[in-house]
Amino acid sequence: METDNLLQKEQDSIQQRNYSDLNRDSSTQLEHQNIPDNHSDTSTARRARDESLHKRILIIAAVIYMMMFLALLIVFAAVEPFRVWYIDLIYQLKENNIQAYVTVFFVGLICLIVGIPIFIIETMIGYIVKPLIYGILLIVAFKMTGLSITFLLGRYIFRDKLRALIQDNEYLEAFSDHASEHPFKIAFFLRVITIFPPILQDYGMGIMKITYKQFFLPVLLSIIIFAIFYAYIGKSIKNIYDNYNSPKKGEEAYKDLAINLLFILFTIIVISYFVKQVQKRLEAAKEETISQVSREEDQHREREIF
User: Residue 173: CB partners within 8 Å, gap ≥ 6?
Assistant: First the structure.
């Protein structure tokens, strides 16, 4: 009888240990299952935060640029020496004066380095400079020089600050990682569309995982495309103005006016469509990179747990 009791106690003890082990294993499995979900929630929250921050940055940048433009208009209207200098510069550009070309070159260069939008300068060049090829070459010269300087400054002077900014933003980090695999595409896309404030894109290119050689060709190509675009817009505005004030009347004048208006409209539609397609591809590349980073982080956390 005593033997039976001992055996029964031993079986009960073994069964209790098995239940305990089973409960512990189940608890561990539940913890393992919850970890990826928690990480996924954290990643989603971080992405939402980055998207919100990105939108706020763009809004703030737009407000700053608008204030710069208004300040320029106020200075032009209120400061007579500046107004006289500007008008004199326009007359010199019309005469293809070398000194005027050099002045515009450095004005455009400084605007690029400090982050002031230059589309007004580009359009003005197309409006004034003849022949048009001179204006296009002038735009390409100061833009390529300015963007090369911002690339080098971003890489060697502001590298640490820019890298800290990228590491805190999943949106920016995705482009940096994707640039190592597709340097031409990323460099070209980031010059064609504006998804960050222009000054951040200009300097941020310096810490992307691309060399200056990989940076040069796609950026030059994008500059040429938009130099032609803005210069032609300026030239078309000039043609419209000339036709409006022309002594020509009747069908010929209206025909010239219609051609120039249609050209401007067609160009804007084509550029807008092209930019939209580029933006879709860039967004797809960004999502792919972010998903890859999230998967790698999940795998790393799982290896640490097991």
Answer: 166, 167, 293
Cα distances from 43 to residues 32, 51, 52, 291, in angstroms, run 17, 12, 14, 10
For the chain, give percent helix, strand, coil, nearest 5. Answer: 90, 0, 10
Among 6-10, 272-276, 299-303, name the one with the lowest average pLDDT: 6-10
What is the token pair recorded at 223? 């500059």
Which parts of the chain are beta strand (E)?
none
Q: What is the DSSP-derived secondary structure letter of residue 245?
A: T
- 0.85 exceeded by pTM: no
pLDDT (tens digit, 9 = 90+) per residue, 86-106?
778 888 888 888 999 999 999
Closest CA to 211 of 279, 155, 170: 155
Nearest residue to 148 via CA among 226, 70, 50, 216: 216
